[in-house]
Automatic annotation (TrEMBL):
Organism: Halomonas korlensis
Domain Methylamine utilisation protein MauE: 3-114
Lineage summary: Bacteria, Pseudomonadati, Pseudomonadota, Gammaproteobacteria, Oceanospirillales
Membrane disposition: Multi-pass membrane protein
UniProt keyword annotations, A-Z: Membrane, Transmembrane, Transmembrane helix
Name of the featured protein: Methylamine utilization protein MauE
Pathway membership, UniProt: One-carbon metabolism; methylamine degradation
Compartments, record wording: Membrane
Transmembrane spans: 42-72, 93-115
GO biological process annotation, one example: methylamine metabolic process
Length: 120
């Protein structure tokens, strides 16, 4: 998460432009497309550090869930062929399974980290 977030931060404007093509929340609230790379990077760094899990986990769960729903709708329901903004703005990575997997892993981390903190 942290590394992918940092790649997005290299060119937030390009990332935002590509992200708006498929993310449902960003299409309704454009500032979310600028917030996303910072949120992903912050959640990743906090999880790596094992600090402030009660901030990092809900953040990862939220952005992962919105992302998974958005990618699933764009690729598997609408059958759109888009480029993924997952490694920053100017990539040729197709939106699809890898993007969906990235978001599902974020969701999983958002659920697992607080459970780990509670029970271990």
């Amino acid at each position: 998460m942290a590394l992918l977030g940092l790649q997005k931060l290299q060119d937030v404007e390009s990332f935002s432009t590509m992200f708006l093509n498929y993310d449902l929340l960003a299409q309704r609230h454009v500032p979310y497309s600028y917030f996303y790379p910072y949120a992903e990077t912050l959640a990743g760094i906090l999880m790596l550090a094992g600090a402030l899990i009660w901030i990092a986990a809900p953040l990862a769960l939220f952005i992962g869930t919105v992302g998974a729903v958005s990618v699933f709708k764009a690729v598997y329901i609408d059958k759109r062929e888009l480029k993924c903004a997952c490694v920053g703005g100017n990539s040729n990575v197709p939106l699809g399974f890898v993007s969906l997997t990235e978001n599902l892993i974020m969701m999983g981390m958002g659920i697992w980290m607080p459970l780990k903190a509670l029970f271990l």
